[in-house]
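Action item from last week, closing it out:
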Amino acid sequence: MSAVSPILKQTILELQNLSSISKFSLGGGTNLALRYNHRVSIDIDFISPIIIDRVTFDKIIEEVYAATYSRCNFFRNLR
């Protein structure tokens, strides 16, 4: 069993390289699934070590959107 699909793993690696979330940690069930390989995970949870204001949050969303739009139906539904 693979904890995440190849596209999800690639997406996680790409997101971790974005400057706006480079200090975030992978959390939640995906982190546990990758660590223990006990289940399949289909989402990504990032945890911030600091409180983020609205302006910063909007910048993060823009950067994530730009990096993942071409393969993410979630963002297509937001527009």
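Closing note: Residues 6-76 form one domain.
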